[in-house]
């Protein structure tokens, strides 16, 4: 473990657990950025599959790395936040990639022209039928779900240090965080460019029903009438549809 404290523009944080097969490509994507005013932090949850061996191969290029038990993904992300010394934080988790080597330069240029924004986010690419397809983010708003991916979101570090992720929400603490930011009147800006290639094998995608139920908890905790009822209605509709679909799949099998 090493700690190098330099004031930099970006803190890139990768959270990982038992992801030996996907971590290296994420590391190489970060280290391949043309813009070098960043620190790179890896938080590993004490993996048992050899993930730490991959980290050790690149430890010379890391600002900090940690391998220890945690209480889940958002606890690990909060550890990264506490360590971060950059002005902006981006979470690029194991399996996720930058779309190209110039993303950080593009975002730095955007920041240089607009110093009032608190959260900048872009679009993502997802793999669909063997090819990459762009998935545009929505314009700044309040919804019952994430309308952009945190892998494409740059947030001022001072905000995350003051208001870290609420680990009571096991799958939707990022939704809870950005809703809090929205209600506090913080400024969001959509960069209409792809930022990340999103790994769809994360827990929120492979266990969508559990993620939706956690979204319900977030909406109940933070939204107010009449939006709360509208958001809950939309969520329950999707949850019921998934449960009915799962029932018939099980019945047919």
Report what the structure shows.
The structure is a single chain. The protein is of the alpha/beta class and 253 residues long. The chain has helices spanning 20-31, 51-57, 73-83, 103-113, 157-162, 173-183, 203-206, 208-222, 227-252; strands at residues 10-16, 38-44, 64-67, 88-91, 97-98, 119-128, 131-135, 153-156, 188-197. It contains 9 helices and 9 strands. Strands 1, 2, 3, 4, 5, 6, 7, 8 and 9 form a 9-stranded mixed β-sheet that branches. Helix 1 (20-31) packs parallel to helix 2, helix 6 (173-183) packs parallel to helix 8 (208-222) and helix 8 packs antiparallel against helix 9.
Features:
single chain, 253 residues, alpha/beta, nine-stranded mixed β-sheet, 9 helices, 9 strands, 41% helix, globular, disordered N terminus
Brief sketch in words of this structure:
This protein has nine helices and nine strands. The protein has 253 residues and is of the alpha/beta class. The termini are far apart.
Q: Determine the mean pLDDT.
A: 92
Helix proportion of residues, in percent? 40-55%
Biggest beta sheet attributes: 9 strands, mixed
Structural class: alpha/beta
Helix tally equals 9
Tally of extended strands? 9
Uncertain stretches: 1-5
Order of helices and strands: EHEHEHEEHEEEHHEHHH
Q: What does the radius of gyration come to?
A: 18 Å
Could you tell me how far the N terminus lies from the C terminus, measured between alpha carbons in angstroms?
49 Å
Q: Tell me, what's the shape?
A: globular
Strand content: 15-25%
């Amino acid at each position: 473990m090493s700690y190098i404290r330099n004031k930099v523009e970006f803190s890139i944080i990768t959270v990982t657990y038992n992801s030996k097969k996907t971590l290296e490509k994420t590391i190489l994507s970060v280290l391949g950025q043309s813009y070098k005013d960043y620190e790179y932090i890896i938080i590993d949850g004490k993996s048992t599959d050899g993930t730490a061996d991959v980290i050790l191969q690149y430890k010379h290029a890391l600002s900090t790395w940690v391998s220890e038990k945690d209480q889940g993904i958002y606890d690990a992300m909060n550890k990264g936040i506490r360590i971060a010394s950059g002005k902006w934080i981006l979470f690029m988790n194991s399996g996720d990639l930058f779309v190209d080597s110039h993303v950080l330069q593009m975002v730095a240029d955007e920041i240089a022209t607009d110093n009032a924004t608190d959260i900048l986010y872009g679009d993502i690419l997802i793999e669909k039928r063997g090819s990459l397809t762009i998935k545009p983010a929505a314009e700044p708003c309040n919804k019952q779900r994430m309308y952009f991916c945190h892998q494409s979101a740059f947030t001022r570090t001072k905000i995350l240090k003051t208001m870290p992720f609420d680990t009571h929400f096991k799958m939707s603490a990022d939704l809870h965080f950005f809703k809090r930011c929205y209600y506090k009147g913080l400024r969001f800006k959509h960069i209409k460019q792809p930022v990340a290639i999103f790994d769809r094998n994360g827990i929120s995608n492979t266990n969508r029903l559990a993620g939706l139920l956690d979204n319900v908890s977030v909406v109940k905790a933070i939204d107010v009438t009449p939006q709360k009822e509208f958001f809950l209605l939309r969520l329950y509709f999707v949850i019921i549809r998934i449960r009915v679909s799962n029932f018939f799949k099980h019945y047919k099998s």
